[in-house]
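Journal club prep — side note

Before the paper discussion, L.F. wants everyone to see what a predicted structure for a comparable chain looks like in token form. Sequence:
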Amino acid sequence: MKSTKKIALAASVMAVALTFAQTPSFAVGSAAAAQLPASVKKSGVLTVGVDTTYAPNESLDKNGKAIGWEINLFNAIAADLGVKANYVSANFDTIIPAIKGGKYDVGVSSFTDTKVREAQVDFANYFVAGIQWASAAGKKVVDPNNACGLTVGVQTGTTEVDDVKAKSADCVKAGKKPITVLSFDDQHLVNNSVSLGRAQALTADSPITEDAVAHSGGKLQLAGAIYGNAPYGIATAKGSTLVKAISLALQDIYKNGIYGKVLAKAGVTPGAIKSFTINGATS
């Protein structure tokens, strides 16, 4: 999964700052805001790296503004903290390095919280998602557990890449043909690879695949069941108090009902959580 989310973006980092988020007027959660780093308190702004090709979680509207349910969720977090969120479009696999380098304060991009990633950044957990495949409609449904010899589209840098490679290795061990991984920086291109016949299947986080099928004009169908549920996390610099601030803000917006409303409006309530952990990776 993303680690394990419409306009085609360039393959390199899109360092174009998006419009400041319009944040709702909530009372600032003092316990959460107290944990903000001094630099953020002074500026009143959080710079957020986001891959805006991962609808419905995060994408761009026709005016180039970041939208999606994760954007709405983080806007509520920012409002609770009394700061603004400045979204910057970037390729997914560049966001964590940019957080480590101090370019972004936060990464909001459907990151699956993993042990490997926790060695680089801290995560405030807020959702659970699984892996979901899709294949071309009108043809035999692809079985994710029997995809040997097929070409599978996947977004670069996601945990789905590792998942497909592991499945491919199992194919080889069984004396079968490996799976060909067709990777793209842009999830829209992943989806199109199946619609256009370049790949027999695609794999992504469950909300993303479901949205791709729903908006494919009948060209895609779901393939297999959701598996590998794992927590999403908002990424911050390792050791920063910012992760604690965000986690406390998540608890605030859960208690005041905003969290549930954001997920319900997007139709992703099944992934809701009640306990907002930090660095809750299971693998």
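L.F.'s comment for the group: The chain has a mean pLDDT of 91. Keep this in mind when we get to the figures.
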